[in-house]
Amino acid sequence: MRETLASTPPIEETAWIHSHQTLSPRWQSNTLSPLSAIPIAISRVNQVDAGRLDIEMSAMLKEQMVKVFSVMKPGLLFQYEAELDAFLEFLIWRFSIWVDKPTPGNALMNLRYRDERATDIRGKIRTGLEGPGLTVYQKLWYCVATVGGQYIWTRLQSFSAFRQWGDSEQRSLARRAWLLVQRIEGFYKAASFTNLLIFLYTGRYRNLIERAIRARLVYGSPHMNRAVSFEYMNRQLVWNEFSEMLLLLLPLLNSSSMKSFLRPFSKDNSSGSGGDETLCPICQANPTTVYLALPCQHRYCYYCLRTRCAATPSFRCARCSEPVVAMQRHGGSINTEKND
Known about the structure:
The protein is of the alpha+beta class and 340 residues long. The chain is built from 13 helices and six strands. Helix content is 52%, strand content 7%. The strands form two sheets. A four-stranded antiparallel sheet has the order 4-3-5-6. It is elongated, with a radius of gyration of 39 Å.
């Protein structure tokens, strides 16, 4: 061992200096690289839920606004429905995005808008969520696209439908304008579908407007946990399925048979033997044309007894629950055919 160490030639001091000078630029380029931004992944579910919550908030405001104008002339508010929607969208934009605050849906989902163009220039990022908010131009373009664009498109569609552009002559100007509107709508839907696929893959830019102005949704607070309680959702699903089951089964049940089956268990037995025998047990009135249910001989109105026997062949007497096999006019002959 000593002989091996003794035979190893000593390393020159200039070799260390040369190695340091060679590796130092590479090390500095890696530590100070502008690509040192931490890649972040924003939950796609949170972004979609935030948009849905904004829509629900706008619908709630619209419902309250409609109640305010409920005393006005009927149909007047319907004529200005597009203006009302645009006004509500403008209010939400004015008191949220314009003042650098998140929309109601974004606030509930812990999201905010960030100018993605500015984050490309910044070098040192600690969590990946830092970055300035939207600029004034981005806010204005967002308002023009969401409020103004949606209003103009809604009015254009209603105007073309009212003027019947699609039913005009083949070479008329209205027909060409209608075809142009249809092509623009088809192109927008195709672009929106493509943007949706890209959003599902990358998690950036829910719609075309955000992609055009490069406004990305990021978490407002990096320390807020995504705690979702499914208790209310489970309760809602249970009641929804239960109501659907009742809607399916109730038409299949015979109401008269159920009443006859439950009558002995009810506390109120006013239609039983303790009631007035001269009244019809169905309409609780004095029979004008008295008929008797056989074989129990209880008094009924002719129309009450006739309709019940025609609707339910196995009709039972409302007083004693005996099966009614025939009906007889009071003091007359027996009518054995109930369903005629």
